[in-house]
């Protein structure tokens, strides 16, 4: 059922968002969509219908009606009456007109904790599994699962409505919305499992970021996020080789990069610079602009931007990325000292970075051990294969 898996990845978030609008209940919408996909397993034995997303929405709506009919409470009967009389295209009110974008804002209600907001939205919008969300946050899967359950309960118990937020409410929810779009894109650019790329997720994140930029054109961080996403997406054609293998930035064929996206990203970065209100996404976008400007990366400029980013967002991940720039400007020894101070024991990229730095310092046995740790922690097949190849090169360097 590979085709069904593809439909699930591409349509789950859209279907949940549409059903949430129709049903007015996030939990019921998700359960109905899951029921519809369970029916699809039986019904799509030969081939999916011409419009799989519409089939899932229709089936989910019918399953929700059946479920409400079996309920005996007054609330359930009232919900059923509303659903039966729901127009196919109800009038939209307020500034957010995209179902999925509206769902993001709804899940990013201030009554929910920051992790609960983004975890719930990633689950509902992108159809991400708990393991994928846990990797994005570098927290245990049980923590994410508990937060999602609590968030749904909070929405139900507190009566948080599914509604379009008023314009005045949008800025208060912006940081969580930006974080969600960024994480959805990252899962598409470096998937937790399977193949390296999930272009459906990365492209959906860009589409929603464009919609958000149209909605909030005066928010510099919104422009910065869009710039960051398109500049990163521009490098995607060169990110994998002819056999699907991972190709790191330094080895990519820049002729394969998408010049239209690069031009768009650079234009957006210039807009950010003119505003003079730097934020984390804008600085990351500026780093992306440097990487895509000219035949080679100006690492001195990248390091200067990472110095600024560390001030704005002092996280271990930012510090690790800065260490990569330090290695290019000041050498691997200084970068290794920085990496060894970071507390990211379960993050495979820390061990992969450390292994590369050790190999560059001719500390082969330590590099092999670091690669072993990185391989053990990596969950994506493509990344594991890449790391295994680099490990072999350290063991038997080319003559």
TrEMBL record:
Q: What positions does the domain DUF6596 occupy?
A: 173-272
Among SUPFAM superfamilies, the record links this protein to: Sigma2 domain of RNA polymerase sigma factors, Sigma3 and sigma4 domains of RNA polymerase sigma factors, TPR-like
Q: What is this protein called?
A: RNA polymerase sigma factor
Any Pfam family: Sigma70_r4_2
Q: Where in this chain does the record put each RNA polymerase sigma factor 70 region 4 type domain? A: 104-155
Which family, according to UniProt? Belongs to the sigma-70 factor family. ECF subfamily.
Natural source organism: Allokutzneria multivorans
Keywords, A to Z, come to: Sigma factor, Transcription, Transcription regulation
Locate the RNA polymerase sigma-70 region domain: which residues? 8-72
